[in-house]
Amino acid sequence: MNRKVFLDIAERTLAAYVTTFLGIIIADGFDLTSISALKAAAVAALPAALSVIKGAIGSRFGDKDSAAWLPERDKAGGGSATGSAGTPAGGR
Question: Where in this protein does the record put region Disordered (predicted)?
C-alpha cells in the first residue's frame, strides 16, 4: 500500500468518525459533559473502523491508487463533459 492510498484511507476514516460523532451528538442533544457523549464517541468509532476495512478492500480490488471500490475512470478517454479548455464539449 502506497502513501497516497494510506492517506486516502486515513481521510475517509476521519471523515466517517467526525460525521458519525457529530450526527449522534446533534441527535442526542449537545451536552459534551454527559456520559452519553462518551458513548457517542465510542459508537462513532465503529463506522470509522469499517471505513478502514472498506478502504483496504478497495485498494486491493478497485482503483489501486485510492481506497475507492470502483475502478479508475479512463483519464484519456472522452468521458469528460468539458473540452480541453474547460468549455462544454461541442461548444465554442
Answer: 70-92
